[in-house]
Amino acid sequence: MFPDPCEDSVPWYNRLNVVNLTFLVFLLAVGFSLPALEGSGRDLNYWENLTRFGAKFFPPDLSILGRTLTSLWETFQIAVCSTFFAISLSLLISLGAAQNLAPKWLVIMTRMLLNMIRTVPSLLWALLAVVIVGSNSLAGVIALTFYSIGYLGKFYSEAFEAADVSVRSALSDIGASRMQAFQYGLWPNVKPLIWSHSLWMLEYNVRSASIIGYVGAGGIGLHLKLYADSPNSWDKFSTVLLCILFVVTLLDLLGERIRKRIKQRLTGKNT
Amino acid sequence: MRIDNVLPLLTARGIGLRLDGRWLFRNLDFSLLPGEFLTLTGPSGVGKSSLLSCLAGTRKPTEGKIVRNFPKDKGIAIVFQDLLLTDGASVLTNTLCGRLNRYGFARTLWGFPEQDRIDAFNTLQELGIGKLAHKWAAETSRGEQQRVAIARALVQEPALFLADEPVASLDPARADAALSIFQREARKHGRPVFAALHDPRQVEKFADRELILSSNSPEDWTLQTVSRHVS
Fold first, then answer.
1. pLDDT digits (tens, 9 = 90+) for A211-259
2. Which residues of chain A approach chain B closer than 8 Å at the C-beta?
């Protein structure tokens, strides 16, 4: 080992930067959180419990495949509709939350609104929607639309902030109006990232739409609740889970391919 | 070309620019006449790009006055040194951006008129990049992007051109071809060109006059007719 030439001349705290410091704080937080691992204190055989319960899931009962797929289709429809409405509304809202596009007062207000929306979990949005429009798939669409706006609004505004605004300024310099400069100088550069976030949200909403049925907001979640509450129906429950896993994996692979292709085009690596 | 008794399109009267406590140029007087090709030369960091941005109106000179004598709707076309193309838009759309000043937002919301698209494509063809029309700008090489930036300026059909190192990324043959098009714009349509160039051969071949900024002193600039003009 070579001696550190700075050891004597530079104080130790000069080596602290935001990464080191946050990592240190995180390690401290882990230390303080260890009591959460204590458990109930009862003498339980965890492994035996797991294998006994896990065995109930196999083999999956495929006799319910037909109606499971029907519900899965409804779940997919809820996810697609809610993602569409969330994209449309988030685009408008995010313009108000982007520091390089909106005045400061509007940014603060919009971000507070987005934070409030994000604070409410999807199940709570679903409960609210069920109370308002009743127990059906519309409740699911409303719930996931609001839930998604909290995230997409944040992601989109960050995408706008990360974009290079010099092209927009250049178009203004050669005579484009403010809106034209935005449409032709900024939007095309942000669009791929926004589409990438939207695809991710769609994948996420398929997963979320699978669970909100638990509180009556339509989709396959209702089946999950039904089989979880019925005695000895875990084999049916596992069929539902496998169907969800199949759709989510398929969407994940598709989204990954599309995102990769977008990245390639933007970085010009396929030329 | 004859430059007497012609009303200048743009006149700089005693302009000077001070940046970070340092004068880049002072007491600069010159005019840009219809039909002429004026080049701007000088060592790096002497203030060529800053002078061009003053003339474009994107930077205010510290002293002096710039008089523009052309209809506002014609405008100035600028070839930026950094090109400033929209990476995620097609080459054709980037070129069409030169026509944005002709229309309101509603007219260009869903695209450009057919004639503009034809004009833009023909300009790209002339610059040898017609086949790239539907590629994203990000997918093209630096040299191709430079030609897109030139095409965007050309389709604008402006009152005058300001170009900051417009052919720096092109090989000599393509650079000459692009500068020939600028020269034709000046001669045929009377749209003067003011271009910062670094290659003396290009200055000699295309320029009518040359404005030279010096790093010795902010006031030590020279405006001269290019004597050994080869056309």
1. 888 888 788 888 888 888 888 888 999 998 898 889 888 888 888 888 8
2. 166-167, 169-171, 173-177, 179-181, 183-185, 188-192, 265-268, 270-271
Q: How many other β-carbons are positioned within 10 Å of the β-carbon of residue B141?
A: 13
Across the interface, whether the CB atoms of B138 and A265 are under 8 A apart is answered yes
User: Residue A101: what are its φ and ψ, rounded to 5°?
Assistant: -120, -30
Q: Is the dihedral of CA A262, A264, A266, A270 positive or negative?
A: negative
Contact across the interface for B77 and A266, Cβ inside 8 Å: no
Residues 70-89 of B with CB under 8 A from A: 75-78, 80, 82, 84-89
Q: Would you say the C-alpha torsion A66, A67, A71, A72 has a positive or negative sign?
A: negative
HSE of B151 in the Cβ direction (CA atoms, 13 Å)? 33
Q: Which residues contact A66 (CB under 8 A, 6 or more apart)?
A: none
Query: Which of A174, A262, A267 should we substitute to test contact with B (largest number of B Cβ atoms within 10 Å)?
Result: A174
Gap between the Cα atoms of B68 and A186, Å rounded: 29
Spell out the domains of chain B, with CATH numbers in brackets. 36-43+75-225 (3.40.50.300)
| Complex ipTM value | 0.87
Let me know: does A93 contact A114? Beta carbons within 8 Å: yes
The DSSP bridge pattern shows strands B222-225 and B209-212 to be: antiparallel
Residue type, B61: P
For residue A40, the Cα-to-chain-centroid distance in whole angstroms is: 32
The CA-to-CA distance between both ends of chain A, in Å, stands at 46
**Is pLDDT above 60 for B229?**
no
| CA distances in angstroms from B36 to A16, A217, B68, B71, B226, listed in the order given | 60, 72, 16, 18, 12
Is the Cβ–Cβ distance between A122 and A144 less than 8 Å?
yes
Closest alpha carbon within chain A to B100? A176
pLDDT, tens digit, 9 for 90 and up, residues B52-85:
999 998 899 999 999 998 887 788 999 999 999 9
Q: What is the mean pLDDT of each run of 10 residues along chain A (271 residues)?
A: 62 79 94 86 81 85 88 91 96 93 94 94 91 90 94 94 90 92 93 89 88 83 86 88 89 86 69 39
Domains observed in chain A? 61-267 (1.10.3720.10)
| Whole-Å CA distances, B73 to A213, B102, B159 | 59, 7, 9
Nearest to A55 by CA among A240, A244, A210, A232: A232
Sign for the CA dihedral angle at A37, A41, A46, A49 comes to negative
Can you give the pLDDT at residue B20? 87
| Residue B30 forms contact with A (CB below 8 Å) | no
Alpha-carbon gap: A71 to the closest alpha carbon of chain B (Å): 39
Classify B93 as helix, strand or coil.
helix
In the predicted model, is pLDDT for residue B156 greater than 60?
A: yes
